Amino acid sequence: QVHLVESGGGLAQPGGSLRLSCAASGFTFSSYAMSWARQAPGKGLEWVSTIHYDASDTLYSDSVKGRFTIARNDAQNTINLNMNSLKPDDTALYYCHLAFPDTWGQGTQVTVSS
Question: What does the pLDDT read at residue 11?
Answer without folding.
Answer: 97
